[in-house]
Amino acid sequence: MRFRSIPLRLNILALALLPSLALAHGDEAKDLDAVVVTATRTPTTVDAALAAVEVIDRAQIDASSARSLPELLRGRAGIAIVNQGGLGKLSTLFMRGTESDHVLFLIDGIRVGSPTSGLTSLQDLPLAQIERIEIVRGPRSSLYGADAIGGVIQIFTRRGETEGVRGRARIAAGSHGLREASAGLDLRGKRGGVGVDVAHQGTDGINACNGNLNTDFSGAGCFIKQGTHLDRDGYRNNSAALRADFAPGEAWQFDARASRAEGHNDYDGDYQDNSDIVQQTVGGSVRWTPSEAMQLKLTAGRNTDDSDNYIGSAFANRYTTTRDSASLQGDFGVAKGQLLSAGFDWLRDAANVVDPWSPFARTRGNRAVFAQYQGDFGAHDLQLSLRRDDNDQFGGHTTGGIAWGLDFAEGWRVTASHATAFKAPTFNELYYPGASNPDLNPETSRSTELSLARGGDGWHVQANAYQTRASDLIAWESSLFKPVNVEDARIRGIELTGSATLGEWTLRGQLGWLDARNLDSGKRLARRPQRSARLDLDRDVGAWGFGVSGIAEAARWDDAANTLRVGGYGTLDARVSWRFAPGWTLQANVVNAFDKRYETSAWYNQPGREFVLSLRWQPE
Q1: TonB-dependent receptor plug domain spans which residues (predicted)?
Q2: pLDDT band at 596 (very low <50, low <70, confident <90, very high)
């Protein structure tokens, strides 16, 4: 597997991962006993999950060079990030070669995302509010319904875990006028607690548009005419999060959370060039656990995604969308090692678009019942899931999944799975005047995966091979200027992930190969790099910490016709931290240390070399 069009230093860095992981040994590098809930909607450990699962915890977030969620996810196995001009700019995520709206995002169990675009505004979700992230690669429609063709990413916001009063704070400054400040406070007693986090992030930005426009169509590329609006594109985000939980007795648990981010984004365009955005999630849950063999949980919430768009100071349009959801789930231990889960999901999407030329307002509901069986038979594990969705617009859809795992020899584990999934068209695809198609069919898929993993004292490696066949995949047809259904698409991929601790060194690495094609035309699906790699290497020496992150991606096509090529690239980030007093850490990061010029989306620049200096107070 070679990485053409990628600098030699990153080529060597990425490929060096394979022998390093194969020979690793030492203390535990990655806590494979960490409990996750996203893969099965019930608590299980990472090593027991019959799916490709990755956890990014708060310690990794603090140690990383990432200033945003898209930066944190960049280069990870099965994930491709497309960004239009740096911090705060539109960022879309492709998982395992599926579409950018084929990944379901949850925040503390609440579904989030825009019903109009089908996307989650990753760039507007502040890292300061995140405690950990669970990534599940592969279809999960049989548990979560629509939107989970490629996988599920669940974000868990911060919460105090120990009794007493705990605080934290951070300030940072860096290149392009970067300024960041955040603070949080938790008060916790024996039966519950409350907490608050606030954060600010701002940047003067870069000139997002590279000025190379398609002369065949006025408005292609960055949607500007030649030579206009080529200036810095700033961004700011102010956010706050509140939380409270209470356990009146052993059997009951109440939880409530609310978060809101308000921001302003400047970008290049002749029809609109700046936006005011709001991202808000409000929700809560009630859990009743009368015995070890039974639990009932009710979760409900609302996600709001608003955008007011302007050209200069003149109003252009407004997108107001809400996603209301509720779920009732029961988990029943029917025998030792046998768990049966069943429940009901309700979803209501609403959109109101105020535009002088193309207004529309729509709502759509969905109701579903689901069931799942998990069985532990010694060396064998079995998972069966089935779900029936009833969509107001597209009727009923049944999805299912089966997964099996076997532990053998010393530390070896093999898993195999097959699952089906579906996705209803978004409101924009159906109704946006002049650029929609009301005759679109829902997208459906069937996926098969085979995995092999082995772990030992301080190391773990896993290889995943998968294939997805998608029917009625929705793709943009530029000749018709509207979305159309692609009859047949095939996605094949291989992932290799691993982690190890060698003395004071911690190593995490990921490699990916992907072949995603439109079988109708024989063309590759747009914006999916065929090869990718990420390597994170960190070392602690007393009060000092050192680390580097190398990310490499091969070239990709930016259009369905495979005529617009975006070249491959490799970047290297470096960091050093100094814990100069109890609870105090000074950290310096250099991002894109070799000042690589590259794009992830045609026409849009990525920042060059950047520096960040931060001071963090977080008592242990």
Answers
A1: 49-152
A2: very high
- The answer, yes or no, to whether residue 64 has pLDDT greater than 80, is yes
Q: Please give the average per-residue pLDDT across 32-52, as a whole number.
A: 89
**Which residue in this structure is represented by tokens 């993993």?**
453
- Give which of 253, 267, 285 is closest to 87, Cα–Cα: 267
Instruction: Assign 16 a pLDDT band (cuts: 50, 70, 90).
Output: very low
The pLDDT, as a whole number, for residue 3 is 36
Q: Burial-class residue 50 by CB neighbours within 10 Å (0-12, 13-18, 19+).
A: buried
Comparing 432-436, 438-442, 459-463, which segment has the lowest mean pLDDT?
Answer: 432-436
Pick the CATH number of 8-617 from 2.60.40.10, 2.40.170.20, 3.30.70.20, 3.40.630.30: 2.40.170.20
**Reported confidence tier of residue 19, pLDDT bands at 50, 70, 90:** very low
Residue 44, H or E segment: strand 44-45
At residue 203, the 3 state secondary structure works out as strand
pLDDT band at 229 (very low <50, low <70, confident <90, very high): low
CA 374 to chain centre: 26
The pLDDT value given to residue 478 = 74
The pLDDT confidence band at residue 487, using thresholds 50, 70 and 90, is confident
Tokens of 17: 């991962």
Tokens of 415: 């898993």
Q: What distance in Å separates the CA atoms of residue 202 and residue 317, rounded to the nearest whole number?
A: 24
Which of 212-216, 358-362, 563-567, 573-577 is predicted most confidently? Answer: 573-577
Q: Give the separation between CA 343 and CA 327, rounded to whole angstroms.
A: 7
- Output phi, psi for 64, to 5 deg: -75, 170
Residue 354: closest CA among 393, 426, 313, 306: 306
Among 413, 456, 495, 458, CA closest to 50: 413
Extended strands (E) in 108-174: 110-112, 130-137, 151-157, 164-174
CB 413 within 8 A of CB 51: no
Are 400 and 386 spatial neighbours (Cβ–Cβ below 8 Å)?
Answer: yes
Q: How many CB atoms lie within 10 A of CB 586?
A: 14
Q: Quick check: 396 pLDDT over 80?
A: yes
The residues spanned by each domain of the chain are 8-617
Q: Which two tokens stand for residue 365?
A: 């509901």
Who contacts 565 (Cβ-Cβ below 8 Å, separation ≥6)?
Answer: 555, 556, 557, 558
Q: Report which of 593, 595, 496 is spatially closest to residue 549, judged by C-alpha positions.
A: 593
Calculated CA dihedral for residues 551, 54, 386, 301, nearest 10 degrees:
-100
User: pLDDT averaged over the chain?
Assistant: 90
Q: Which residues on adjacent β-strands are paired with residue 30? A: none
Three-state secondary-structure class, residue 160: coil
Cα angle 129-134-140, degrees, rounded to a multiple of 5: 130
Cβ 259 vs Cβ 280: under 8 Å: yes
- DSSP classification of residue 569: E
